[in-house]
Amino acid sequence: MIKSLHLSMLLSSVLLFFVSHLHAQTCKPGDILLKNDILPANGGTAKVAIVSGLCVGEAAMSVLSAPGPVKINAVSVLFAHRSATNGIKAVVDIEIYDGAKVSAKGTYTLGPLLFKLSKTSQNLQIQTTGLNVFTLPKPVFSQSGKPVIAFRMVQNLSTGSCAKGYSANFATDNVFACKPGTNILDAKGHGPIDPCTYRGFGVPLYPIYFRGSWVIRACATPTVSVSWTGNPTPGGFLSFKLLAPGQSGDQYLMMMSGGIQRGFSTPWGKVPLDPDPIFSCFFGSCRPFLLRSFGTFNSKGEAFSALSIPNLAILRGSGLTLYAGFFTFKMPHFTPWKSISAPSKAIVIR
């Protein structure tokens, strides 16, 4: 995208303009809108900024945050013209990754690739000036709850060039601030970088060449899920967040197992946890280590549990792998179960 020697040419300064009729990305009932930009969710007129020097082969990416694992149903991006001219076209590819990690130097390591539109032998045509919405062929599941939505430029049909900048390109919300860890610019010769913190071009990109957040959004369905944080070591403590959208006031029962290869069927759906010795232990002698293993969801459909890992020498460095899950029901009846969660990400005892 840019070489430090010709920075001013290859990444033109952001261009500001007013864009009218910024159409909304309407999510279906039960979905949530994920976005980092501050522009109105329901459309309107907004002042945005074009990053005119983004070249063919490069990508604008947003790290979006959901309350837990989600299914991505639709994505959108703002493609804008410096004069707010409508109908200028471009061709893009869409990529979705499951999370990303940023280093102290501002470089990113992307998570697993979940979806790539060009793998279906097609690309997407977008046009100025407004949000371009694409409904995915089928929902894409993000286990991390931090989906990275990427729009990669395949062909830019506006006037200009990579060297001098294009008259139309992806745009940000033009906020004089930069949130590290939320925006990614996949630039030739540099790879995925954080425009807020990366210094590999010789000069900082914020605020002259980039500011605010990409206008990239997604409609997502929260899933019945469990996530964890903490230190999976002997003597350590893990906190679980249980998510069951729309089940405020319902009850849950936690489960643990050592695998998710087979699962087992019940009259109310398949439990994805294996019925192995660890599963049995957590309904027996291991149960006291699983705190708040039974409880009630709050008004947001959330609940919280915890695991206290015994400080045993045999566990240290063992690599013992655990998975958490739960099912829900409505008291005073234990059955039928209303829902069964997806398994947590692996808990590996170090």
* Average predicted confidence as pLDDT: 90
Number of helices: 2
- Which regions contain 5 or more consecutive residues with pLDDT less than 50? 1-13
- Specify the structural class: mainly beta
Strand runs, count: 29
- The N- and C-terminal alpha carbons lie at a distance of 41 Å
Residue share in β-strands = over 45%
Helix content: under 10%
What is the radius of gyration?
Answer: 23 Å
Q: What spatial form do the alpha-carbon principal axes imply?
A: elongated
Q: How many structural domains in the coordinates?
A: 2
**Quick one: biggest sheet?**
7 strands, antiparallel
Q: Can you describe what's shown?
A:
By secondary structure, the protein is mainly beta. The chain folds into two domains: 218 residues, no CATH class; 125 residues, Immunoglobulin-like. It is built from two helices and 29 strands. The strands form seven sheets. Strands 1, 2, 3, 5, 11, 15 and 18 form a seven-stranded antiparallel beta sheet that branches. The longest helix is centred in the last third of the chain and has 5 residues. It starts with 6 loop residues before the first helix and ends with a strand.
